[in-house]
Amino acid sequence: MKIVRRYLYIWSILSKKSFFVHLTRKLGFFVFLTGKILRFIFFILFLFFILKKTNGIGSYSKDQAILFFVVFNLISSLSQMFFRNVYTFRQSVVSGNFDLILSKPISPLFRVIFGGFDFIDLVTIPPLIFVLFYAARPLSPDFYQVILFVLLLLNGLFISFSLHTIIVSLSIITLEIDQMVMIYRDFETMARFPLEVYGKKVASFLTFFIPLGIMIAFPAKALMGLLSPQFIVVSIVFGFVFFFISIKFWNFALTKYTSASS
What we know:
It is built from 13 helices and two strands; from the N terminus they run H-H-E-E-H-H-H-H-H-H-H-H-H-H-H. By secondary structure, it is mainly α. The chain has one domain (about 1-255). The chain has a two-stranded antiparallel ribbon with strand order 1-2. Strand 1 (about 55) and strand 2 form a beta hairpin. It is globular and about 55 Å long.
């Protein structure tokens, strides 16, 4: 618990620093905040047109399809909010600032992943939670389904952390991160809809190879009561195995890092 408290304290300091950096760039802060608000407005409009124009997607009803889309946006926003520092990590490697991170008496992975909390994304989270309640109400989930949803939502964020760990590891090896992040984001947007609409092969690829299905679709299915106990266990086990693999890959990437002083 002492270690947990220590890292929570460090995270709070890094978050405050990130907040003050946002405040010093008022124009950029305003532009990004406006963009987030507009994105949320378009999100609401998209839901409205789904309600108006369609009766469902694939084998899923209209209400179920909407829930998939809401859960996708919630997990995506939470991931960007907590892991925003990943998007600027390349500059630390190229400039040599990563040497300073490695010299600090804290986990460099923690510093790299959690070093830039995004307060702009924080603005969208409460409205998304409200929309989630609104979208789930017609499906009448019971208490057990809600608990499973929360559990698998946390597991989804755990998997997202592992994916971002792999991305920064590849950045150390290749010095490229922008393209990898964009590729990841492109794949992630495919999970806005039930993966079954892409066919069995693509759905399996997005579920287990790039585990967006486990990360996004499984929590939504759990809230609908459509996820079997076997898949619940598989998703939790997969989350831990994927985390273990990502940490191993991170440690391997560190052995390939060439210090700026070299």
